[in-house]
Amino acid sequence: MSTDTTSTAPKTREPETDRKTWWREHSELGMSAFLLLLGVLVLTDGLSLPTDFTTRGPLGPQAVPVAVGSLLVLIALLLARDVLRGGKGEAEGGEDIDLTSTADWRTVLLLSGAFLANAALIDVAGFPVSSAVMFWAAAFALGSRNYVRDPLIAAVLSVVTWVAFNELLGVPLPGGPLMGVF
Amino acid sequence: MDIGTSLSNLFDGFGTALTPSNLLVAVIGVLLGTAIGVLPGIGPAMAVALLLPVTYGLDPTAALIMFAGIYYGGMFGGSTTSILLNTPGETAAVVTAMEGHPMAKRGRGPQALASAAIGHFLGGVIGTTLLVLLAPLVASLAVDIGAPDYFAIMVLAFVAVTSVLGSSRLRGFASLLVGLTIGLVGLDQLTGQARLTFGSLHLADGVDVVIVAVGLFAVGESLWVAAHLRNKLEKPIPVGRPWLGKDDLRRTWKPWLRGPFIGFPFGAIPAGGAEIPTFLSYVTEKRFSRHKDEWGKGAIEGVAGPESTASASAAGTLVTMLTLGLPTTAVAAVMLAAFQQYGIQPGPLLFERESALVWGLIASLFVGLVLLLVINLPMAPVWAKLLRIPRPYLYAGILFFASVGAYAVGGEVLDLLLLFAIGVLGFAMRRFGLPVLPAIIGVILGPAAELQMRRALQISDGNLSGLVNSPMAVTVYVVIALILAWPLLRKLITPKTQEREKQDA
């Protein structure tokens, strides 16, 4: 826990920063907007199902999507009301989580990049290469800077996993050109 | 089914569980489960979800035996983390940390670990014995229940899981609806019409539950941790081999034996597993304790009782999951998905149709518990070393195995992208306090609930009374009404208990 008390915001603020702070404090409205959007999506998809289809039973395939979509819209509005009245969702704590710090978006983006690189590479370069890249990049994103140990662990982990899944567990993973020699 | 048949079935089950290959699978499961459960940040639910692909190549019996080991091992591992590192990763271990960590700080770590391990063992044995006695009975009663009853029970699960847990019902319901939406994706089960597939053939099969579970738990958690990674890690307290003295035994045997009778029933009802019963056990033991001055500073009863309770609640969870096909916790939800991967549908008929498999699984629970005790007591110092794993490697590893799991489901890159999208959703849910469990339950039970509801209405020819035309369904709806009225009741009760707590302290 942080014992730093000097970081309290100054009392006089520019109107622009005021607006920014307001949005930051009410960022949960974004969740509400997402739920609203999802609700509308589910509703339109549900209602666009052809009704002349010979449905078995009194309730067709539209009923549940329409119900879920409507409830989503309702919950989105209720959530927005709750947030505007000062309600706040409790951010989830955990062993490695320090909620007193502000969100570190750079790490999140780097980590996402590592994951998506794996998705982009796996069919081209094969599982061992793509997931080794992902492991190293993810460890780098999270602050590990050991340029010998990091790639070594990444390489060993991916090759061992590939062999274990392919040979021992019978779950095929693409080897890629590099594993063609085996 | 009478008890004699159950016992002879169980005996056959041991025959299945004790074959060398299945025993080996159980050992691997227990070791993997404990190792992953000890790792900080990974609770049993994530452990089970991440290890699901390991079982893809096994036959159903061996796979489920391994799963049972992973489940019990994961729960056990969580207690080690909370005792030695204080900040528990999952709800069942929160209570253990309250007394266990102060004990470790005072140099009584070995005793805390031992009372947790033995409590876990005894709670598991008593809980699993209750499972043996009750599950066939529940199954035979459940054979007669019809579509309206099933629908009512599933609605109960939805309401209970959103209302009982978490601080905000609104956010619980939001999470449930997100889960139900994901569950809608794919072809309608009755008419075969595509819903929310946006013309994608891949989505026509629906979103695989494994991807949802791994995405919400593993990827969501990694991204969330990345945003708020603690700079200075808390140092785990080093510990030697666990043991208990005579004085400690005198203080722990009663909490050990009381725990299961609190944990088992709560595990069986859809109230979120171990969170509530472990807390109840804590309060109970505090009231009975003769060492009230030690509470808060490391009272051993506060470790023994809740651990035994948590373990028994896992067995209770399995009763509901096996006999009704109803998962009450996230772990049970993932296990249900594992059953379905093999085309096995848990429910009242499971004990008839898959008798050998079910009894093999139950017998392996006993085997797993013995293995846990035998392996973990001497190995505790080794497990404790896992707490020092550098966090970049830990979360890179979680992402690594998450993508292995998602890719192994069908060998599709699209699944990885889906996994990432669900991971981002999991991140947002953590950020804004939406609980994850209702979403998982929604994904798994949503389609089943829709099917039962439409069946019930088919039978009644569209008349809504078809949903409430059995005494059981009516009873369940009354229970649902009570749960929804609970905050009002709680307001009447809480001030009193708080005063009492103050007096105790």
Automatic annotation (TrEMBL), chain A:
Membrane-spanning intervals of the chain: 29-47, 59-80, 115-140, 152-173
User: In which residue ranges is the amino acid composition biased (Basic and acidic residues)?
Assistant: 11-20
Write down the Pfam families for this protein, in alphabetical order.
TctB (PF07331)
> Which UniProt keywords are present, listed alphabetically?
Membrane, Transmembrane, Transmembrane helix
| Spans annotated as Disordered | 1-20
Q: Which domain of life is it from?
A: Bacteria
Q: Give all residue intervals belonging to the DUF1468 domain.
A: 31-174
Q: Please give the name of this protein.
A: Tripartite tricarboxylate transporter TctB family protein
| Bias kind Polar residues: ranges | 1-10
TrEMBL record, chain B:
Q: Which Pfam families match?
A: TctA
Report the domain of life of the source organism: Bacteria
Report TM segments: 21-42, 112-138, 150-166, 173-190, 210-227, 318-339, 359-380, 392-410, 416-445, 466-489
Alphabetized, the UniProt keywords read:
Membrane, Transmembrane, Transmembrane helix
InterPro entries recorded: DUF112_TM (IPR002823)
Q: Does the keyword Ubl conjugation apply?
A: no
Domain DUF112 per the UniProt entry, residue ranges: 23-441
* Name this polypeptide is given: Tripartite tricarboxylate transporter permease
Q: What is the lineage of its organism?
A: Bacteria, Bacillati, Actinomycetota, Actinomycetes, Pseudonocardiales
